[in-house]
Amino acid sequence: MHKPGTSAYNLALADYCKAPEISLIDADNYQGQIGEQIRVRAIDNFGFTEVKVSIYDAADLLVESGLAIQSANSVDWIYHATTLNSNLAGTKITAQAKDTPGNTTLKTITII
Known about the structure:
112 residues; four-stranded antiparallel beta sheet
C-alpha cells in the first residue's frame, strides 16, 4: 500500500522540482598529486546521472576535470586526481551534481 499522492507522476514531478544538494567537498587528502582523492557528498531525492569534479588554479585556468565514482554508501562520490597541481594556494575545486531530470547544483571550495 502506498501513501496518497505518491503516484509515479507525483514522484517524477517531485524529482523534477528539487535540485540535488552538495553538502561537502572534502579535499583534505588532496595535495596536488596524481591519484589523490577528493570526496563529494551529494544528496538527491531519487539519484544522480553524474557528479563531476573540476580543479582550477589560482588564475581560474582549468587544471583537470572528470567524473567522480559513487561510493558504496550512495552519498559520497570519489574523484581521483589525474594531473599534477604543484601550486595549491588559491586552487578552486568545483563539484557539479546532476540528477535525472537535469537539475544541476554547483559548489566550489578554495584551497588556501
